[in-house]
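Honest question from a wet-lab person: if I give you the sequences of every part of a complex, can you actually get the arrangement of the whole thing, not just the pieces? Trying it with mine:
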Amino acid sequence: MTAPLLGVGLLGAGPVTQAIHLPTLAALGDSFRVVHIMDVVGGVAAQVAEALGARWSTSVEELLADPAVEVVAICSPPEFHADQIIAACRAGKKAVLCEKPFVLTAEEAELVAAVSHETGVPILVGAMHSYDPVWLAAREAWNESGGRVHTIRSSIALPPNARFEDLATEMVGRLPRPEQSEHEVRQVQDAELLRGAVLGLAIHDLPLVRSFVVDGDELRVCSASFEPSYGYLIVLRIGGLAVELHAAITENWAPDWVLEVIADDIALTLTFPPSYVQAGSAFAELSAPGRTEVLGPWDRSGYLEEWRRLAEVARGARPAQPIEALADDLLFALAVADGAAEFLRPVPAAVVAV
Ligand SMILES: NC(=O)c1ccc[n+]([C@@H]2O[C@H](COP(=O)([O-])OP(=O)(O)OC[C@H]3O[C@@H](n4cnc5c(N)ncnc54)[C@H](O)[C@@H]3O)[C@@H](O)[C@H]2O)c1
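Yes, you can. This is the full assembly:
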Protein backbone atom coordinates (compact mmCIF):
# COMPACT_ATOMS: atom_id res chain seq x y z
CA MET A 1 0.00 0.00 0.00
CA THR A 2 1.39 3.43 -0.88
CA ALA A 3 1.45 6.08 1.85
CA PRO A 4 -0.87 9.09 1.37
CA LEU A 5 0.77 12.19 -0.07
CA LEU A 6 2.13 14.69 2.46
CA GLY A 7 0.70 18.22 2.10
CA VAL A 8 3.48 20.83 1.81
CA GLY A 9 3.24 24.49 2.76
CA LEU A 10 6.06 26.82 1.74
CA LEU A 11 6.84 30.05 3.62
CA GLY A 12 8.55 32.38 1.11
CA ALA A 13 8.02 31.93 -2.63
CA GLY A 14 11.20 33.53 -3.95
CA PRO A 15 14.00 32.05 -6.05
CA VAL A 16 14.82 29.07 -3.82
CA THR A 17 11.17 27.99 -3.81
CA GLN A 18 10.60 28.55 -7.50
CA ALA A 19 13.90 27.33 -8.91
CA ILE A 20 14.88 24.60 -6.43
CA HIS A 21 12.11 23.25 -4.23
CA LEU A 22 9.19 23.23 -6.65
CA PRO A 23 11.17 21.39 -9.38
CA THR A 24 12.37 18.92 -6.71
CA LEU A 25 8.84 18.39 -5.43
CA ALA A 26 7.62 17.90 -9.00
CA ALA A 27 9.96 14.90 -9.16
CA LEU A 28 8.60 13.57 -5.86
CA GLY A 29 4.92 13.51 -6.76
CA ASP A 30 4.60 10.06 -5.17
CA SER A 31 5.36 11.54 -1.72
CA PHE A 32 4.28 15.18 -1.65
CA ARG A 33 1.70 17.61 -2.96
CA VAL A 34 2.10 21.36 -2.60
CA VAL A 35 -1.06 22.67 -0.95
CA HIS A 36 -0.23 26.19 0.24
CA ILE A 37 2.23 28.93 -0.73
CA MET A 38 2.83 31.97 1.47
CA ASP A 39 4.86 35.08 0.65
CA VAL A 40 4.71 38.59 2.09
CA VAL A 41 4.30 39.77 -1.51
CA GLY A 42 0.79 38.61 -2.34
CA GLY A 43 1.27 38.78 -6.11
CA VAL A 44 4.22 36.39 -5.95
CA ALA A 45 2.42 33.92 -3.67
CA ALA A 46 -0.67 34.03 -5.91
CA GLN A 47 1.21 33.52 -9.17
CA VAL A 48 3.35 30.69 -7.85
CA ALA A 49 0.39 28.96 -6.16
CA GLU A 50 -1.92 29.35 -9.14
CA ALA A 51 0.41 27.40 -11.41
CA LEU A 52 0.19 24.50 -8.93
CA GLY A 53 -3.49 24.68 -8.07
CA ALA A 54 -2.48 25.42 -4.45
CA ARG A 55 -3.92 27.92 -1.95
CA TRP A 56 -1.95 31.07 -1.19
CA SER A 57 -1.71 33.63 1.57
CA THR A 58 0.45 36.46 2.88
CA SER A 59 0.51 35.44 6.52
CA VAL A 60 2.44 32.73 8.33
CA GLU A 61 -0.50 32.18 10.69
CA GLU A 62 -2.89 31.50 7.82
CA LEU A 63 -0.60 28.90 6.25
CA LEU A 64 0.00 27.20 9.59
CA ALA A 65 -3.73 27.14 10.35
CA ASP A 66 -4.36 25.24 7.09
CA PRO A 67 -4.97 21.61 8.13
CA ALA A 68 -3.86 20.39 4.68
CA VAL A 69 -0.33 21.65 5.46
CA GLU A 70 1.40 18.72 7.13
CA VAL A 71 5.05 19.67 6.51
CA VAL A 72 6.41 23.19 6.28
CA ALA A 73 9.35 24.36 4.16
CA ILE A 74 10.82 27.67 5.32
CA CYS A 75 12.27 29.53 2.34
CA SER A 76 12.08 33.11 3.60
CA PRO A 77 15.18 35.28 4.25
CA PRO A 78 17.26 33.98 7.21
CA GLU A 79 16.24 36.69 9.69
CA PHE A 80 12.72 35.17 9.79
CA HIS A 81 13.75 31.52 10.12
CA ALA A 82 13.85 31.15 13.91
CA ASP A 83 10.38 32.63 14.50
CA GLN A 84 8.87 30.67 11.62
CA ILE A 85 10.40 27.34 12.73
CA ILE A 86 9.08 27.91 16.24
CA ALA A 87 5.60 28.82 14.92
CA ALA A 88 5.53 25.69 12.70
CA CYS A 89 6.56 23.50 15.67
CA ARG A 90 3.91 25.06 17.91
CA ALA A 91 1.30 24.51 15.16
CA GLY A 92 2.01 20.78 15.56
CA LYS A 93 3.16 20.10 11.98
CA LYS A 94 4.72 16.71 11.20
CA ALA A 95 8.16 18.10 10.25
CA VAL A 96 9.89 21.31 9.20
CA LEU A 97 12.51 21.77 6.49
CA CYS A 98 14.28 25.10 6.89
CA GLU A 99 16.65 26.62 4.37
CA LYS A 100 20.19 27.41 5.44
CA PRO A 101 21.28 29.11 7.62
CA PHE A 102 18.46 27.76 9.78
CA VAL A 103 19.06 30.45 12.41
CA LEU A 104 21.49 33.34 12.80
CA THR A 105 22.73 33.17 16.41
CA ALA A 106 23.66 30.63 19.07
CA GLU A 107 20.73 31.89 21.19
CA GLU A 108 18.27 31.25 18.36
CA ALA A 109 19.71 27.75 17.85
CA GLU A 110 19.22 26.98 21.54
CA LEU A 111 15.65 28.29 21.51
CA VAL A 112 14.71 26.37 18.36
CA ALA A 113 16.24 23.16 19.77
CA ALA A 114 14.24 23.58 23.00
CA VAL A 115 10.97 24.12 21.08
CA SER A 116 11.65 21.14 18.80
CA HIS A 117 12.16 18.92 21.88
CA GLU A 118 9.14 20.34 23.69
CA THR A 119 6.77 19.91 20.73
CA GLY A 120 8.37 16.75 19.30
CA VAL A 121 8.42 18.32 15.82
CA PRO A 122 11.57 17.29 13.90
CA ILE A 123 13.58 19.93 12.01
CA LEU A 124 15.76 19.38 8.95
CA VAL A 125 18.07 21.98 7.43
CA GLY A 126 18.22 22.42 3.66
CA ALA A 127 22.00 21.95 3.52
CA MET A 128 21.84 19.77 0.41
CA HIS A 129 25.49 18.68 0.37
CA SER A 130 24.98 16.99 3.74
CA TYR A 131 22.36 14.75 2.04
CA ASP A 132 24.34 14.08 -1.13
CA PRO A 133 24.52 10.26 -1.40
CA VAL A 134 28.03 10.27 -2.90
CA TRP A 135 29.32 12.51 -0.10
CA LEU A 136 27.80 10.12 2.46
CA ALA A 137 29.30 7.06 0.76
CA ALA A 138 32.71 8.73 0.40
CA ARG A 139 32.68 9.80 4.05
CA GLU A 140 32.00 6.21 5.10
CA ALA A 141 34.81 4.94 2.86
CA TRP A 142 37.13 7.53 4.41
CA ASN A 143 36.20 6.31 7.91
CA GLU A 144 37.16 2.77 6.92
CA SER A 145 40.55 4.00 5.65
CA GLY A 146 41.27 5.71 8.99
CA GLY A 147 43.18 8.55 7.28
CA ARG A 148 44.01 11.49 9.56
CA VAL A 149 43.22 14.59 7.57
CA HIS A 150 45.64 17.54 7.61
CA THR A 151 44.31 19.74 4.77
CA ILE A 152 40.88 20.66 3.43
CA ARG A 153 40.22 22.96 0.47
CA SER A 154 36.75 24.13 -0.50
CA SER A 155 36.78 25.92 -3.82
CA ILE A 156 33.63 27.41 -5.37
CA ALA A 157 33.62 29.33 -8.66
CA LEU A 158 30.10 29.96 -9.90
CA PRO A 159 28.16 32.32 -12.13
CA PRO A 160 25.56 34.50 -10.33
CA ASN A 161 22.47 32.70 -8.95
CA ALA A 162 20.12 34.50 -11.35
CA ARG A 163 21.62 32.62 -14.29
CA PHE A 164 20.63 29.29 -12.74
CA GLU A 165 17.25 30.58 -11.57
CA ASP A 166 16.36 31.63 -15.12
CA LEU A 167 17.46 28.28 -16.52
CA ALA A 168 15.44 26.40 -13.89
CA THR A 169 12.13 28.26 -14.09
CA GLU A 170 10.19 31.28 -15.31
CA MET A 171 10.91 33.39 -12.25
CA VAL A 172 8.20 35.68 -10.93
CA GLY A 173 8.73 38.65 -8.61
CA ARG A 174 12.50 38.50 -8.19
CA LEU A 175 13.65 41.29 -5.88
CA PRO A 176 16.16 43.64 -7.52
CA ARG A 177 19.69 43.12 -6.18
CA PRO A 178 21.23 46.41 -4.99
CA GLU A 179 23.88 47.77 -7.34
CA GLN A 180 27.16 48.37 -5.53
CA SER A 181 30.27 49.83 -7.01
CA GLU A 182 33.52 48.06 -6.23
CA HIS A 183 34.59 51.10 -4.26
CA GLU A 184 31.44 51.01 -2.11
CA VAL A 185 31.77 47.30 -1.55
CA ARG A 186 35.29 47.81 -0.21
CA GLN A 187 34.48 50.93 1.79
CA VAL A 188 31.21 50.04 3.35
CA GLN A 189 31.09 46.73 5.08
CA ASP A 190 33.62 44.19 3.94
CA ALA A 191 33.45 42.49 7.33
CA GLU A 192 29.65 42.19 7.24
CA LEU A 193 29.67 41.09 3.60
CA LEU A 194 32.26 38.44 4.41
CA ARG A 195 30.18 37.20 7.35
CA GLY A 196 27.13 37.02 5.10
CA ALA A 197 29.04 35.15 2.38
CA VAL A 198 30.19 32.53 4.90
CA LEU A 199 26.65 32.07 6.25
CA GLY A 200 25.17 32.13 2.74
CA LEU A 201 27.62 30.10 0.67
CA ALA A 202 30.49 28.52 2.64
CA ILE A 203 27.82 27.09 4.94
CA HIS A 204 27.03 24.43 2.32
CA ASP A 205 30.43 22.79 2.88
CA LEU A 206 31.11 23.68 6.51
CA PRO A 207 29.19 20.71 7.98
CA LEU A 208 31.31 18.45 5.73
CA VAL A 209 34.48 20.18 6.93
CA ARG A 210 33.33 19.93 10.56
CA SER A 211 32.92 16.18 10.22
CA PHE A 212 36.76 15.98 10.01
CA VAL A 213 37.44 18.34 12.94
CA VAL A 214 38.68 16.76 16.16
CA ASP A 215 36.32 17.65 19.05
CA GLY A 216 37.74 20.36 21.27
CA ASP A 217 40.30 21.66 18.76
CA GLU A 218 40.42 25.44 18.69
CA LEU A 219 39.56 27.32 15.50
CA ARG A 220 41.84 30.20 14.45
CA VAL A 221 41.37 32.44 11.40
CA CYS A 222 44.83 32.90 9.83
CA SER A 223 43.66 35.21 7.03
CA ALA A 224 40.39 36.38 5.53
CA SER A 225 39.26 38.65 2.73
CA PHE A 226 35.99 39.47 1.04
CA GLU A 227 36.35 39.13 -2.73
CA PRO A 228 34.21 41.52 -4.80
CA SER A 229 31.71 41.32 -6.20
CA TYR A 230 30.86 38.29 -4.06
CA GLY A 231 33.29 35.74 -2.69
CA TYR A 232 35.88 35.08 -0.02
CA LEU A 233 39.33 33.72 0.63
CA ILE A 234 39.70 32.40 4.18
CA VAL A 235 42.42 30.30 5.77
CA LEU A 236 41.73 28.53 9.05
CA ARG A 237 43.81 26.44 11.41
CA ILE A 238 41.86 24.00 13.58
CA GLY A 239 44.24 21.91 15.68
CA GLY A 240 46.30 19.89 13.19
CA LEU A 241 44.00 20.77 10.31
CA ALA A 242 44.53 23.58 7.75
CA VAL A 243 41.36 24.67 5.93
CA GLU A 244 41.21 26.92 2.89
CA LEU A 245 37.82 28.29 1.82
CA HIS A 246 37.69 30.06 -1.52
CA ALA A 247 34.64 31.31 -3.44
CA ALA A 248 34.26 33.55 -6.48
CA ILE A 249 30.85 34.35 -7.91
CA THR A 250 31.71 35.88 -11.26
CA GLU A 251 30.41 35.86 -14.81
CA ASN A 252 32.58 32.80 -15.58
CA TRP A 253 30.66 30.34 -17.70
CA ALA A 254 31.84 27.10 -16.15
CA PRO A 255 30.57 26.31 -12.66
CA ASP A 256 33.09 24.59 -10.43
CA TRP A 257 32.48 23.36 -6.89
CA VAL A 258 35.17 21.14 -5.41
CA LEU A 259 35.95 19.93 -1.90
CA GLU A 260 39.34 18.29 -1.33
CA VAL A 261 40.25 16.38 1.82
CA ILE A 262 43.87 15.31 2.17
CA ALA A 263 45.68 12.95 4.55
CA ASP A 264 49.20 11.53 4.10
CA ASP A 265 48.01 8.23 2.69
CA ILE A 266 44.60 9.02 1.21
CA ALA A 267 42.91 11.95 -0.54
CA LEU A 268 39.29 12.64 -1.43
CA THR A 269 38.13 14.99 -4.17
CA LEU A 270 34.40 15.70 -4.33
CA THR A 271 32.95 17.62 -7.26
CA PHE A 272 29.44 18.94 -6.62
CA PRO A 273 26.93 20.12 -9.18
CA PRO A 274 26.17 23.83 -8.68
CA SER A 275 23.17 24.85 -6.55
CA TYR A 276 19.84 24.92 -8.46
CA VAL A 277 20.93 22.24 -10.91
CA GLN A 278 19.00 19.00 -10.61
CA ALA A 279 21.84 16.99 -12.12
CA GLY A 280 22.16 14.20 -9.61
CA SER A 281 24.80 13.79 -6.95
CA ALA A 282 28.39 14.81 -6.58
CA PHE A 283 31.11 12.51 -7.85
CA ALA A 284 34.06 11.50 -5.75
CA GLU A 285 37.59 10.23 -6.28
CA LEU A 286 39.21 8.53 -3.34
CA SER A 287 42.93 8.03 -4.01
CA ALA A 288 45.37 5.95 -2.01
CA PRO A 289 48.75 4.57 -3.09
CA GLY A 290 48.13 2.19 -5.97
CA ARG A 291 44.35 2.63 -6.21
CA THR A 292 41.71 5.21 -7.06
CA GLU A 293 38.07 4.56 -6.27
CA VAL A 294 35.44 6.57 -8.14
CA LEU A 295 31.96 7.03 -6.66
CA GLY A 296 29.03 8.46 -8.61
CA PRO A 297 27.68 10.54 -10.07
CA TRP A 298 24.36 8.97 -9.08
CA ASP A 299 20.95 10.16 -10.19
CA ARG A 300 19.79 11.29 -6.72
CA SER A 301 20.68 14.92 -5.90
CA GLY A 302 21.14 16.34 -2.40
CA TYR A 303 17.86 18.26 -2.90
CA LEU A 304 15.92 15.09 -3.72
CA GLU A 305 17.50 13.32 -0.77
CA GLU A 306 16.70 16.08 1.73
CA TRP A 307 13.01 15.94 0.73
CA ARG A 308 12.96 12.12 0.76
CA ARG A 309 14.41 12.22 4.26
CA LEU A 310 11.76 14.77 5.24
CA ALA A 311 9.04 12.36 4.06
CA GLU A 312 10.54 9.50 6.08
CA VAL A 313 10.90 11.67 9.17
CA ALA A 314 7.36 13.12 8.85
CA ARG A 315 5.96 9.59 8.56
CA GLY A 316 7.93 8.41 11.58
CA ALA A 317 9.82 5.87 9.46
CA ARG A 318 13.20 7.29 10.42
CA PRO A 319 14.48 9.66 13.11
CA ALA A 320 15.71 13.10 12.11
CA GLN A 321 19.33 14.05 12.73
CA PRO A 322 19.46 15.30 16.36
CA ILE A 323 18.79 19.03 16.47
CA GLU A 324 21.95 19.38 18.60
CA ALA A 325 24.05 18.24 15.61
CA LEU A 326 22.42 20.90 13.43
CA ALA A 327 23.06 23.47 16.15
CA ASP A 328 26.73 22.40 16.34
CA ASP A 329 27.03 22.81 12.56
CA LEU A 330 25.62 26.30 12.92
CA LEU A 331 27.96 27.20 15.80
CA PHE A 332 30.90 26.06 13.66
CA ALA A 333 29.70 28.23 10.76
CA LEU A 334 29.20 31.19 13.11
CA ALA A 335 32.75 30.72 14.50
CA VAL A 336 34.14 30.85 10.95
CA ALA A 337 31.91 33.79 9.93
CA ASP A 338 32.57 35.85 13.06
CA GLY A 339 36.29 35.01 13.14
CA ALA A 340 36.69 35.98 9.47
CA ALA A 341 34.70 39.22 9.93
CA GLU A 342 36.76 40.06 13.02
CA PHE A 343 39.96 39.53 11.04
CA LEU A 344 38.89 42.33 8.67
CA ARG A 345 37.84 44.86 11.30
CA PRO A 346 40.37 47.61 12.06
CA VAL A 347 42.46 46.98 15.17
CA PRO A 348 41.34 49.36 17.97
CA ALA A 349 43.86 52.21 18.49
CA ALA A 350 44.66 51.09 22.06
CA VAL A 351 46.04 47.75 20.86
CA VAL A 352 48.14 49.11 18.00
CA ALA A 353 51.82 48.68 18.89
CA VAL A 354 53.73 51.95 19.34
N1 LIG B 1 19.94 25.46 -0.68
C1 LIG B 1 20.24 26.25 -1.68
O1 LIG B 1 20.85 25.84 -2.68
C2 LIG B 1 19.81 27.69 -1.63
C3 LIG B 1 19.91 28.53 -2.76
C4 LIG B 1 19.45 29.85 -2.65
C5 LIG B 1 18.94 30.33 -1.45
N2 LIG B 1 18.87 29.50 -0.36
C6 LIG B 1 18.29 29.98 0.92
O2 LIG B 1 16.88 30.12 0.76
C7 LIG B 1 16.38 31.24 1.50
C8 LIG B 1 15.64 32.19 0.55
O3 LIG B 1 16.48 32.51 -0.53
P1 LIG B 1 15.98 33.18 -1.87
O4 LIG B 1 17.12 33.15 -2.83
O5 LIG B 1 14.70 32.58 -2.29
O6 LIG B 1 15.82 34.66 -1.21
P2 LIG B 1 15.07 36.00 -1.50
O7 LIG B 1 15.34 36.80 -0.29
O8 LIG B 1 15.41 36.55 -2.82
O9 LIG B 1 13.50 35.57 -1.54
C9 LIG B 1 12.82 35.19 -0.39
C10 LIG B 1 11.31 35.33 -0.59
O10 LIG B 1 10.78 35.42 0.73
C11 LIG B 1 9.80 36.47 0.78
N3 LIG B 1 9.75 36.96 2.15
C12 LIG B 1 10.33 38.05 2.70
N4 LIG B 1 10.01 38.13 4.01
C13 LIG B 1 9.24 37.05 4.28
C14 LIG B 1 8.62 36.57 5.47
N5 LIG B 1 8.73 37.21 6.63
N6 LIG B 1 7.90 35.42 5.39
C15 LIG B 1 7.77 34.76 4.21
N7 LIG B 1 8.33 35.18 3.06
C16 LIG B 1 9.06 36.31 3.11
C17 LIG B 1 10.28 37.49 -0.23
O11 LIG B 1 9.18 38.29 -0.68
C18 LIG B 1 10.86 36.60 -1.34
O12 LIG B 1 9.86 36.25 -2.29
C19 LIG B 1 17.60 31.84 2.20
O13 LIG B 1 17.69 31.32 3.50
C20 LIG B 1 18.78 31.35 1.34
O14 LIG B 1 19.98 31.25 2.09
C21 LIG B 1 19.28 28.20 -0.43
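Two things worth pointing out. The mean pLDDT is 92. The first helix runs from residue 15 to 26.
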